Amino acid sequence: MNGRNSSVVVTGLGIAAPNGLGNRNYWESVREGVSGIGRISHFDPSQYPSRLAGEVKGFVPEEHLTSRIISQTDRMTQLALVGTDCAFADARTQPSEFDEYEMGVVTASSSGGFEFGENELRNLWSQGGQYVSAYQSFAWFYAVNSGQISIRNGMRGPSGVVVSDQAGGLDAIAQARRQIRKGTRMIVSGGIDASLCPWGWTAQLTSRRLSTSSDPNRAYLPFDAEAAGHVPGEGGALVIMEDLASAHERRAPNVYGEISGYAATIDPGAGVESATSLQKAIEQALRNADADPAEIDLVFADAAAVPELDRAEAEALTKVFGVRGVPVTAPKTTTGRLGSGAASLDVATAFLAMRDGVIPPTPNVRIADEYDIDLVSEKRESRAGVRNCLVIARGIGGFNSAMVLRDSNQSSGR
């Protein structure tokens, strides 16, 4: 049933985003360009140069999780556990329907449980070591989401964590794809990050890539003449991945589409400014998917909103697809850049766009004349449908990843 060339499909989505908690709420917001960016409320940001973020609103952990779980987990992990529950519900299946060794978890993380760690450090310095929670030993760790999802759902198959900043969401899904092709029946994958606390905020400011604008509508402007950094956020998406034959065997009601191609490159010396390395990642992902550039109906851009990085991305896209050769969108301008959660949220958004034949917009951005890309600024209905998408993600440190997604009709052979 499984093998190197088997189709790996997504059958469930679990979304936690600043402009919508849950799949339906998020999709309704993003397709209409509704933003979840605003002044930080988790803490007082007045002493910092950057004060805007995308916060997941309406999330009350006590409504979803036991007090025991809450006491030992960071907000990031709480969102991940609830996102996993949402993904299983969307897939219309439960872990109990699988053998525990036939299920795995591969997530991405760019920060770990910063807020939990900050609270325990505060206890250490103000009260002493005896007041530090024993759960600090793992609640801060990069791999904690994979571990807690595994424990909660009894998943004991191939698992792991990927740490490559914003590119991590794609890299984790690609690793999950490899494991399913080796024989694992089902894997939860993707990324959810949450480090909107003073410690996490200070760490993000060191990148010097954060916008200092106080206007939520003009703070995060990729490919705009006024681009001056991004707005961070929290959240992301987790997806249920299965072998297509296995999904058909259990009569999965949702087969959103296939992870049909992936590639990654790195610029360890030049950072992420190289258009050539990003171009190579895109071209290799297309080859891995056995797809021509003309088959791609929509590109989800990395959208750094740093001029030199935007230029590199636009150059890579025009070299692969030609001048304005394919629609390009960056709905993350409504959420902020979500660390490792950003790319997996783009993957989930791409599958929803395929399902409904809708291209979500990049609101508030006025594309500068220097960029020869077809940036979608208002929602478009696609008469021909959205059949194949490319998702691009880049991480600090020179990580470049690209993933090709194919819609469910093609994946199902219909």
From TrEMBL:
It comes from the Bacteria. It holds the Pfam family Ketoacyl-synt_C. One of its GO terms (molecular function) is 3-oxoacyl-[acyl-carrier-protein] synthase activity. GO terms for biological process: fatty acid biosynthetic process. SMART domains: PKS_KS (SM00825). Gene3D superfamilies: 3.40.47.10. This is Act minimal PKS chain-length factor (CLF/KS beta). Belongs to the thiolase-like superfamily. Beta-ketoacyl-ACP synthases family. It comes from Actinopolyspora mzabensis. InterPro entries: Beta-ketoacyl_synthase, Ketoacyl_synth_C, Ketoacyl_synth_N, PKS_Beta-ketoAc_synthase_dom, Thiolase-like. Keywords: Acyltransferase, Transferase. Residues 5-407 form the Ketosynthase family 3 (KS3) domain.
